[in-house]
């Protein structure tokens, strides 16, 4: 019997990625092997509730959504996440996965849009990046850089070029809230003619830094 440890299941607007603004059900799995300095979901490191896969799918269905995002913590830290992703796709949802990029994405259902971080030096977890994941990226996937400062920005630009990321998939640059001025990051992107999508965390501007939103 497949079980997952669930921190929360909630309905909100997607705050990031190229589906920003769309009503979405979020399934947040408990647990994460990383400790990024800017993490805003530390409550998901432990606790949560064990649910059977069928119970998770039933709770998602109650919202009658089109879009579902599986997130964490680090959802791939639970082996059953792969089965969850497949089950959500089978149910007809448009499914995305938010992952740190520290764990293998090679077995993720190809119907899933993978939104994968590459951790910058400012995160404190740059050494956890699993660069072999880049070979598994599809054109429908997205790579996200959370920028803490100018050092992070230049590091991200180096990765963008070294891995030809903007020709592999969509690339997202996001300012770390409280650490990198959003307008300044936008100006750098325009100055350097980068082929990336600038984004801010919409949900935080609407509701603040609270769980369940």
From TrEMBL:
CDD domains linked: Radical_SAM
Keyword annotations from UniProtKB, A to Z: 4Fe-4S, Iron, Iron-sulfur, Lyase, Magnesium, Metal-binding, Queuosine biosynthesis, S-adenosyl-L-methionine
Residue ranges annotated for the Radical SAM core domain, each copy included: 19-209
UniProt EC number: 4.3.99.3
Pathway it works in: Purine metabolism; 7-cyano-7-deazaguanine biosynthesis
Reaction catalysis annotation: 6-carboxy-5,6,7,8-tetrahydropterin + H(+) = 7-carboxy-7-carbaguanine + NH4(+)
Residue stretches spanning the membrane: none
Source organism superkingdom: Bacteria
Pfam families xrefs: Radical_SAM
Complex formation: Homodimer.
The species this protein was found in: Sedimenticola thiotaurini
Cofactor info, note text: Binds 1 S-adenosyl-L-methionine per subunit.
Molecular function as annotated in GO: 4 iron, 4 sulfur cluster binding; carbon-nitrogen lyase activity; magnesium ion binding; S-adenosyl-L-methionine binding
Biological role: Catalyzes the complex heterocyclic radical-mediated conversion of 6-carboxy-5,6,7,8-tetrahydropterin (CPH4) to 7-carboxy-7-deazaguanine (CDG), a step common to the biosynthetic pathways of all 7-deazapurine-containing compounds.
Sites where the protein binds substrate: 13-15, 28, 71
Gene3D superfamilies: Aldolase class I
SUPFAM superfamilies, A to Z: Radical SAM enzymes
Protein name: 7-carboxy-7-deazaguanine synthase
């Amino acid at each position: 019997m497949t079980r997952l440890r669930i921190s929360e299941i909630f309905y909100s607007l997607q705050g990031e990625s190229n589906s920003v603004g769309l009503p979405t059900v979020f399934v947040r799995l408990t647990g994460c092997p990383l400790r990024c300095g800017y993490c805003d979901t530390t409550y998901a490191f432990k606790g949560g509730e064990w649910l059977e896969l069928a119970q998770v799918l039933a709770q998602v269905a109650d919202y009658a959504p089109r879009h579902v995002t599986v997130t964490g913590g680090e959802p791939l830290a639970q082996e059953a996440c792969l089965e969850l992703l497949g089950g959500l796709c089978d149910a007809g949802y448009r499914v995305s996965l938010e992952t740190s990029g520290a764990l293998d994405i090679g077995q993720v259902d190809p119907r899933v849009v993978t939104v994968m971080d590459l951790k910058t030096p400012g995160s404190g977890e740059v050494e956890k990046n699993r660069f072999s994941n880049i070979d598994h990226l599809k054109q429908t996937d997205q790579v996200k850089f959370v920028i803490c400062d100018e050092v992070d920005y230049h590091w991200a630009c180096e990765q963008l070029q070294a891995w030809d990321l903007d020709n592999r998939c969509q690339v997202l640059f996001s300012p770390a809230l409280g650490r990198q001025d959003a307008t300044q990051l936008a100006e750098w992107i325009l100055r350097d003619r980068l082929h990336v999508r600038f984004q801010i965390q919409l949900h935080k501007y609407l509701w603040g830094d609270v769980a369940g939103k």
